[in-house]
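QA checklist item 7 of 12: single-chain prediction sanity check.
[x] sequence parsed
[x] length recorded as 267
[x] structure emitted
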Amino acid sequence: MGELVFVGLGLYDEKDISLRGLEEIRKADAVFAEFYTSLMPGLSIGKLEALVGKSVSVISRHTLEEEDGKPILQEAKKGKVTFLVPGDPLIATTHVDLRIRAEKQGIKTRVVHGASVVSAVIGLSGLQNYKYGRSVTIPFPEKDFIPETPYRVILENRIMGLHTLCYLDIKTEEQRYMTVKEGLQSLLYTEKQKRSHVITLSTLVLGVARAGSDNPTVKAGYVGDVMNHDFGPPPHTLVFPGKLHFMEAEALITLAGAPEQIREMVE
């Protein structure tokens, strides 16, 4: 039987591939990629193919989820296949199901990790990694229904003094990428329904755009101000800080333009 190697592409463009990942791709008999789980704003398929010296077959969500990744597994039974995934293959964008299917069919699997939005946003935030709680995705509304899960997760983390990383929904097929403003509007709508004072215009929040690029936008402040900040093109991410260490407050002020008053929040 063959081999299936999951290769993380990183965050921004084709130059984010690690040297190990590049080596694996160049040795592969077939190369597949998906770009529906995350946006790599600087990526060009043409430049990617020129860099790796291989033709890259881009597959859809339908192929992976409805067809169980059969085209990939069929090729992997015959030889070595690399599957390219934005970010890190099995963290923010999970393809564990495909890996399990491969192993059960006798196909050897390996993972070449790439930079993840998780570590990138946490690093850009200046907030300490071990103080982050459960992360959550803020989805686009469906028929005027807005899920309460993001609101609840932020509340639960805050009770424990933990920070919350919020991914913002993307719909690649529709070319829709949720912005910081849309994410905050969704949470404020839930606040109106729940009235638990979790998300108000005076809540401290951090917005990050295009993490991993040469010009990421990182802005911290109160919800009312951050909503009106120009973050530029997607992808966008939100972070809701919990209890602040004095060094975290200093980082938000110095690196993300947070107001000086947040020093009063230090515990």
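[x] summary fact logged: The mean pLDDT is 95.
[ ] second reviewer sign-off
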